[in-house]
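Issue: ligand-bound run for fe (iii) ion - logging full I/O for the record.

Environment: standard queue, default settings, no custom constraints.

Inputs:
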Amino acid sequence: MTGARYAAAVDTSRCRADETRNHQALLGFVAPATTRDELAPGAVVLRGFALAAADDLIDAVERVWAAAPPRHMSVPGGGTMSAAMTNCGALGWVADASGYRYTACDPASGTPWPALPDAFLRLADDAARAAGFDGFLPDACLVNRYAPGARMGLHRDADEPDGRAPIVSVSLGLPATFLWGGATRRDPVVRVPLEHGDVLVFGGPSRRTYHGVAAVREGVHPRLGAVRVNLTLRRASAADAQTMRR
Ligand code: MD3
Ligand code: FE
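Outputs:
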């Protein structure tokens, strides 16, 4: 499959009908407007899926930031990540000069990461279900904060032992270009525009695919200012009967 074929499958259009339905959804009349694009088997783009919950999600992000401030983590090769990161949930992803791992406590404070907010859990469950993954029970959420110019190079998420659980990603604030690669670092990369409220779900054969984020462009979001936030909800503990209820 070629990059062009994936690109053609990504519908970036937004129409007036969608806006009207989003407005009605805010008023509680109908389900939120979402277009569902499949990037690849198991990789689903749910456009606007988090719009109705976005204010609650941002309130919760700000509480997480107050308890566990975002920081630029060091990486083994030397240097630091350009996105500032923190976590909530029973486990949190950390990087330092010695490697990458999940920890129960924030190394900066020595205390447990803040709990997963209800708004995150509800959104993760709804999005996973909409993408065909029933009973997703995340125990970790990495919260990435991008200032203009920040990016994330191509990588695979491989620190979660249980490959059965999907990852749910929520984009808030400034737009960005998501880079969707393949099974190897050299596979062609498809650029997928992401906006405030878009949700991605990655499971099954897409779970170990290379991906990244292009440098975020200057801009101001009405609620978050010159910031993009990405939430990734994950199952970081080892596989057991609780991983998926199904
Ligand atoms: C595909 N975050 O935190 S979200 C990351 O926008 C990360 O901050 C990016 O990559 C961000 O690890 C991209 C989309 C995403 C997240 C995790 C994935 C795509 C994924 C894991 C496996 C496959
Ligand atoms: Fe990732």
